[in-house]
Amino acid sequence: MLVRVLNGPNLRRLGTREPDKYGTATYARLVEHCHAVAGELGLEATVRQTDAEHEMLGWIHEAADDGAAVVLNPAAWTHTSVALRDACAMLTAPLVEVHLTNVHAREPFRHRSYISPVAAAVIAGCGIDGYALALRWLAARPAGG
User: Fold this and answer.
1) Which of 32, 85, 106, 111 has the highest CB neighbour count under 10 A?
2) What does each C-alpha distance from 113 to 32, 72, 104, 117, 118 come to in angstroms?
3) Is 61 a known active-site residue?
């Protein structure tokens, strides 16, 4: 199974950005973790991060064209981007929305996700382990399911 693990703005700053909220694991550690778990599960995973919304949209379009599943941490775009939501609606394989923190226990503006209504699953508040949960969930799904 092809899986795109896509990360939005500021996630490359993991480990230094508000470690009390986001933890001390670096972005490099997150990438290693995703590749290790994907390898264990026999998934073909690509892990990417961007601070540019147009680049993220292109990656989502690419996943839609390739029939790839997506693990997406849209970060701040979760609460602001109708364009990202519309691109995610074009996906033909499952989308799992992931957040490092429990967005529902944070500021009220973070409680609204434009992505959740088009996601097959949402994982929040598990730190980088949320990515492993998402990959395991995708691997356990029946082919085409």
Assistant:
1) 85
2) 27, 12, 10, 8, 10
3) no
> What's the helix, strand, coil split of the chain in %, to 5?
50, 20, 35
Using CA of residue 111, residue 117, residue 121, residue 127, what is the dihedral sign? negative
Name the catalytic one among 22, 27, 114, 131.
Answer: 22
99 is annotated as an active-site residue: yes
DSSP string for residues in 85-129: HHHHHT-SS-EEEEESS-GGGS-GGGG--SSGGG-SEEEESSTTH
Residue of 33, 99, 114, 131 with catalytic role: 99
Q: Which of 24, 17, 9, 6 is nearest to 97 (CA)?
A: 6
The CA distance from 114 to 135, in Å, is 22
Nearest of 62, 83, 84 to residue 73 by alpha carbon:
84
The pTM of the full predicted model, rounded to 2 decimals, is 0.93
**Per-residue pLDDT reduced to its tens digit, 74-133:** 999 999 999 999 999 999 999 999 999 888 877 777 768 999 999 999 999 999 999 999
